[in-house]
Amino acid sequence: MKSVWNEQQQEIRDFYEQVARERVRPSAASRDITLTFDRQIWRDLGASGLFGLHMPEEFGGRGLGLREFTAALEGFSRGSQDMGVLVSFVAQVGLVQAGLLSYGTEEQKQRWLPGLIRGELLGSFAITEQGCGSDVRAMKLSATQELNGFRINGQKWNITNAPQADVVMTFAHVEGAGDKSVTCFITGTDVPGLERSEPFELLGNRGTPIGAFNFNDVLVPESAVVGGVGGGLNVLYFAFLVERVLTGLVITGCMEPLVEDCLRYSQERLAFGRPIGENQYIQGQIVDMYCQVEVLRSVLLRAMDSMEQGVDCSSLASMVKMIATESLHEACLNAIRIHGNSGYRRDKYFERLLRDSIGVFFAGGTIEIHRHVIWTNLVEGFRKGERMRDGLNLGVYQNQNPATTAFSQPAEEAIA
């Protein structure tokens, strides 16, 4: 499973798997039960360099390429056994940091990116509203322009990291802006009038704080606008693309141990005097899991390569999210079936990952939404040639030079 990585990438992957095993995995079950988020783990991950591995050095990143970041996140996901931390990670890195890097002003990037990359800040990307999920144009959050900036009113609902976030990137309709009114704003969460709910009690992903933002006459300056007034959909679509790819990457890392644990158990568990792995239905379940991991990784690497080349990969991103969502849920069910009663116990991570997998069905867009995205791209490609969405800043990762940038592990005391 490791042949796709060169020597440096493999070193990075192994290092971040070990970081996850030491800092995240031991307390994953406890956080799931108690519905808690550990800020010290967040700071430790920042010290390890994970948040900024692919970010420019001028903002505190390491300046490596997306392949190196892919290896790191896959290894980290493999070692963590905690989708809660991974969901929080994707929300910050794949949405907030990606959106800032692509569309933020120099002032915005200098103000927010270093703290996010160091793990000192927790970022939240607030889109969803009650009764308004994937239909982003139907959102009700409004922003009224005034002499001193914009006054924002309304609510965002079911937002990852909201209860503990230090910075929020949100989207609102600017009144009087016409058809192109959707605008992105970034602000600290300590501004007057911005309230956060307690974490929602959810079936899965309980290690990540998910809740609501209430904007009550929140005044933000004009310098809080990201991507220009009316440019919010460009920021949104780009961030969605990155988030979908990173979600698939996280799931690939989580699925690898499932394959290995099921394979090991199939050789050790005896039934009627022989290993259960001699039964074809067990073989079929494990082979399917293994094939799904390899297919996912192949599509992921194509998507990452497209991003580094500045090419629109929205179909690949939706494909990744769609395949990953269904594969993870099926793999968790099969892992429990193969392990029988022992797989049903709470001291295994299978049942926790199964609950987490259900949330992925609708987080970041349902499977049906992704099929629609792919279909739209297919039809437009058939009619007009290759589709390229106007306004997407897809060249943001092109300036990295991983071939000449070496990876060095941070000192252990910096992480611990």
UniProtKB/TrEMBL annotation:
Q: Which GO terms describe its molecular function?
A: acyl-CoA dehydrogenase activity; flavin adenine dinucleotide binding
Keywords, A to Z, come to:
FAD, Flavoprotein, Oxidoreductase
Q: Which cofactor does it need?
A: FAD
InterPro entries tied to this protein:
Acyl-CoA_Oxase/DH_mid-dom, Acyl-CoA_Oxase/DH_mid-dom_sf, AcylCo_DH-like_C, AcylCo_DH/oxidase_C, AcylCoA_DH/ox_N, AcylCoA_DH/ox_N_sf, AcylCoA_DH/oxidase_NM_dom_sf
Q: Which Pfam families match?
A: Acyl-CoA_dh_1 (PF00441), Acyl-CoA_dh_M (PF02770), Acyl-CoA_dh_N (PF02771)
Q: Which residues form the Acyl-CoA dehydrogenase/oxidase N-terminal domain?
A: 6-120
Q: Which residues form the Acyl-CoA dehydrogenase/oxidase C-terminal domain?
A: 230-375
Query: The organism sits in which domain of life?
Result: Bacteria
**Keyword match Secreted:** no
Domain named Acyl-CoA oxidase/dehydrogenase middle is located at 124-218
Membership in a protein family = Belongs to the acyl-CoA dehydrogenase family.
Q: What is this protein called?
A: Acyl-CoA/acyl-ACP dehydrogenase
Say which species the protein is native to.
Thalassolituus pacificus
